[in-house]
């Protein structure tokens, strides 16, 4: 298969401004058929604008948008074959669950029996059997989202767009719904794009992540690729629970690195005073400034050479307390300058007498 | 402190009651008693007078036309202002409110100048046989002008609060304007719209200033109820004037009651939709 055929959704050099604000700057995106892609970025990074341009709710100022090989810039939203789940769900509040899901089919003037069959099938699929006659206000957040999903796919669109689908749902239900949505999208086999600002959501849900910042695409790749090999300073700092270090060259094992660096908690080993240390020559002294119990893990804030970094210790390990002196070994950092990021391992690993853990 | 509060409370209540009695209740009682001063038969005779009946019919006709036109205009204006982004939107929404601040007499004069003898339009209108000034079309125009903010002002806040998501969702599914409006927007704005229609009717029936300038006071032709009342009053026919006034007052009371009923249902449905969130 040629590459052209493989990409199902494509944006080529797309620009969009609102007044003086550039919401999209030279966006280039390729999305494969059947993939679930996450548009990830902080709020105001332009991810919703991309979604709206795909849906046809906003027009691109310049550039081309292709869906299934057709340039859709001038195609009306309703003719683009798109299902959209709004952030607010936008359920018709004066219509029942059944009427909401049937709306698009009725507009398409489908046969009555078909509509009945299809809507019941969808209600079954999203697990809302018995709630057909309820109004949106009588549903929980999660149930509303299920209705929105069923409504969006009722007319069998080729592309499903979801705008922050879990934003209005509380944390516990959110995790459950995430798994549910992933399974359902697999089952239906529809190419989907999810807009989210929640990295955990994007990492867990998506086949591919498109990371946006300030109206530009920062990096595209699989979740593990994006997480483990950030290519830009933004990507390095946005993903994970990071600390940015100004003076990384002062840290043992990273001498000679000129700029700044990003350290993730999982890169840091923390040793209490009496614990045995694997790389005794490469540890720095640090003081515990804060201990946060997080249930399955203990989060520590450490003062080290004038910077504060975050590190984890397991619940099973010996407890450390605030003010305690500890030894810190940093396995890896992301070295960053103004434009790019690259991964740097502690120099002990590249030395002759390195010990591999 | 408690006691002081109580005193202030009762003081204010009394003040309101006295004010409303002097300003509203006494005059209304006076209108009705004067209307029946010479007995029921005199009242019926005054109301059944040929010119009186014509003025009632004209008022009803003007009100119905005005309400229909303003309902359409109000909906379109509210739709334009709440559903689209464009330059000059603020100017348009300010212009919609203009009739509320302009004196109705000036509104009448504007139309007199626009369509009257001195207007450049006048020769064309006469050629086409259209008579606006000192005729029913002029009265309708003036009344529409004076009352057009009422409906859009009621529904704009409701439409703004509802946002555009549901309409966008419907449009994305291929629904046309008419479908979107009747199925999605109308259920939202139903109560506000009815409320606006009631206010608009009330104002249209009672309009005096603008209509007075443009109607020409032709008895039996261009005299609406308020104008008829003025004419009979000027002719010292107090029974006639007050009989007609009492009919207007009764209409106003009916509207007031309708208004309160609508407000009650509107609030109720609003509370329900707030519970949604």
SSE string of chain A: HEEEHEEEHHHEHEHEEHHEEEEEEEEE
**Strand-residue fraction of chain B?**
under 5%
First-to-last CA distance of chain B: 40 Å
Find the CATH superfamily of the largest domain in chain B: MetI-like
Q: Which class of secondary structure composition applies to the elements of chain B?
A: mainly alpha
Sequence stretches where pLDDT stays below 50 over 5 or more residues of chain B: none
Second rung of CATH, namely the architecture of the largest domain in chain B: Orthogonal Bundle
CATH topology (fold) name of the largest domain in chain B: MetI-like fold
Structural features, described:
With 357 residues, chain A is an alpha+beta fold. Chain A is elongated and about 75 Å long. By secondary structure, chain B is mainly alpha-helical. In chain B, 82% of the residues lie in helices and 0% in strands. Chain B is built from 13 helices and no strands. Chains A and B meet through helix 3 of A and helix 9, helix 10 and helix 13 of B.
Task: Tell me briefly what this model is.
The complex is a heterodimer of chains A (about 350) and B (about 280). Chain A has about 350 residues and is an alpha+beta fold. Helices cover about 25% and strands about 35% of the residues of chain A.
